């Protein structure tokens, strides 16, 4: 996470270029960076070329877009989504995808992190000339992440944050009548997830962990990840050499402990084998479970294998908030219920152990959507 | 101070602690052997091979041949020991009759290694731990790893395309000045320990399977891989882009299709941890015969506290950067063992739930290097997301630099590769490689490898064995 691009060389003007300094791809320009995938020394031009083309290829081979499609870029102001917004605009113009791009941001309510990064998104909006929509946890759920952490503790922060953000993006997109949200999830995230699912035997998620497009059945909103094969380091390098304006502070809430161990393992693996991130994704795409067939076999008469398999009843909606959900009550509402109980119970005490999170609780209000 | 009692018999003092349970020597040996025996006996096919058969027209008098790859590690010795105790038991219960005999296969790298294996084997023999009637059921075979290139039906040179990741091959003729192509040359061309290790494991596995193929009446290879090793292996396959192979590599139900359906691969130690096999060897005294491996005393309840940290050469910290993928996986398991228990077992259980993916290209093809099934088109996959073509030359200055490069050492080297590529592409034949092998080959400087042609004839070309003198 803390990886920083190399600083630009200074005082290099007028010095003759040695052959050993030449780019290993074009052999005619000075190499300035090591390509994260294979440590090839390459020049800026070649780097831009391969990075952009690989993303374009990913978009084309997976048929991510159709002409005229309206697409929302999940924009956080961080490097991934800033580069994503930049690249999408660039490729859309270069290759005529014919898509219409909007920036969509979620304000989770994390002081010192999200408020600053949102300022970045607002600058990006002007720089790229793209429309921007912001939805906030506070406005949708009447909870900020800081309040959630103060109530539920720091341990599960990412669980709450993840569930609410996913729903918020969907709600934001729906409000804009956009049916496709793209996010800046990169290859590192995906490889880490594959490893984690194997290590903790999360069979339910194993097969889907490398899907580039995900859509719950019955949901009008499709999500995709054009950076599926892009290394985090490549994204950082790209932002650096293109001098993109992004916000680089990390969220104050630490990631889940187990993910931390998988991340450490990945770091070691990558040091030994730079290609391992795409290698792991290649593996992930080829993991198929045995059980599936057996699950299909036990169908009763007239049952639809798809709905039985996922336990998902098409178009089922949450009783409370009307959001698409396989259960009577959606996950967000379930989490909210727990939170509300705690808010009532712990009164207005401050939890001083949680950095930046201890904000005075607001009054108990009912949800309004 | 009184020691802890064994939790099984509640009588003897505990000597080993495993999976949070204290055991005495006797109960621990039983615990480990039962795990292995259970996996040998649950499936009907395997049960019929191990058990004593009665009847008139039985092939070989009802005695089946079990091939046991034997690398002189704690895993090999404990697998052997459990098999031997089963044999002894059969002799007693069936008045001298037995159900199987064991062909031990050892692949050696060089003379020095062979010497240490032989020495250990002789020592074990003299020690008389097993008795003459058991020894007559054990056959030790030693095969020189060089047979991989020697006892074949010709070699070919496989070249990988630097831009589109396709590959082609040509017959390879060993240059006149050297008599044969050697493993040493292969390993020297590998860019790192990891690729070398991959190659070595493939060579050993292939030789063992080829040996078994050539044993007319042998239907089982009993691999002494511990749960720990198999978990490393699974993670290793994932990290090397070989996830599709996991299911086939753990399959013990089907005959091995790559070797003409002659035998099945059994992994009866897959529920036993490596540390348990180490403890087993310590308790039984077999640890003194172990070669090239040092047992860990982690599970032993020692009388005097031994400082395991200084005594254990395995703990010698290798720099993370010099570790192989499998070693890194092992390190990970070791490091988090305390905090998240059962990760190893979880990984194995997940591996067992996988099946091979559907084959995308119509005619099922095999990788020419590692023989694994190729499920999708890895070259095409890589072409899209690992582009190897740069930005074109644009200015005069760039043109000049390019010329400079062409005439330089690297330029000439690359030129040589390009010529070889050109020749192979015009004269050679198409070669299909799996994703993992493409990545390995791409890491080799010259993107070429000399490899035996895996055709029907290759399996027939008889492996020469090193004969043990009696
Ligand atoms: S680290 Fe966790 S809490 Fe912080 S923004 Fe990410 S998901 Fe939310
Ligand atoms: Zn270049
Ligand atoms: Zn709901
Ligand atoms: Zn006991
Ligand atoms: Zn292969």
From TrEMBL, chain A:
Binding site for ATP: 74-76, 80, 106, 184, 189
Entries under Pfam families matching the protein: ATP_bind_3, zn-ribbon_14
Keywords: ATP-binding, Cytoplasm, Nucleotide-binding, RNA-binding, Transferase, tRNA processing, tRNA-binding
Main enzyme class: transferase
Ranges for domain Cytoplasmic tRNA 2-thiolation protein 1 C-terminal: 316-347
Domain tRNA(Ile)-lysidine/2-thiocytidine synthase N-terminal: start-end pairs: 71-255
GO biological process terms held by the UniProt record: protein urmylation; tRNA wobble position uridine thiolation
Primary localization: cytoplasm
Subcellular location(s) per record: Cytoplasm
GO molecular function, one term: nucleotidyltransferase activity
EC number(s) recorded for this UniProt protein: 2.7.7.-
Pathway this chain belongs to: tRNA modification; 5-methoxycarbonylmethyl-2-thiouridine-tRNA biosynthesis
GO cellular component, one term: mitochondrion
Gene3D superfamilies, alphabetized: HUPs
Primary role: Plays a central role in 2-thiolation of mcm(5)S(2)U at tRNA wobble positions of tRNA(Lys), tRNA(Glu) and tRNA(Gln). Directly binds tRNAs and probably acts by catalyzing adenylation of tRNAs, an intermediate required for 2-thiolation. It is unclear whether it acts as a sulfurtransferase that transfers sulfur from thiocarboxylated URM1 onto the uridine of tRNAs at wobble position. Prior mcm(5) tRNA modification by the elongator complex is required for 2-thiolation. May also be involved in protein urmylation.
Family note: Belongs to the TtcA family. CTU1/NCS6/ATPBD3 subfamily.
Protein's recorded name: Cytoplasmic tRNA 2-thiolation protein 1
Origin species: Maudiozyma exigua (Yeast)
Gene behind the chain: NCS6
From TrEMBL, chain B:
GO biological process entries: protein urmylation; tRNA wobble position uridine thiolation
Pathway named in the protein's UniProt entry: tRNA modification; 5-methoxycarbonylmethyl-2-thiouridine-tRNA biosynthesis
Signal peptide: none
Keyword DNA-binding: no
Compartments (UniProt record): Cytoplasm
Gene3D superfamilies referenced in this protein's UniProt entry, alphabetically: HUPs
Cellular-component GO terms for this entry: cytosol
Keyword hit for Cell membrane: no
One GO MF term: nucleotidyltransferase activity
Keywords recorded for this protein, A-Z: Cytoplasm, tRNA processing
Protein's job: Plays a central role in 2-thiolation of mcm(5)S(2)U at tRNA wobble positions of tRNA(Lys), tRNA(Glu) and tRNA(Gln). May act by forming a heterodimer with NCS6 that ligates sulfur from thiocarboxylated URM1 onto the uridine of tRNAs at wobble position. Prior mcm(5) tRNA modification by the elongator complex is required for 2-thiolation. May also be involved in protein urmylation.
Family the entry assigns: Belongs to the CTU2/NCS2 family.
Official protein name in the record: Cytoplasmic tRNA 2-thiolation protein 2
Organism (species): Maudiozyma exigua (Yeast)
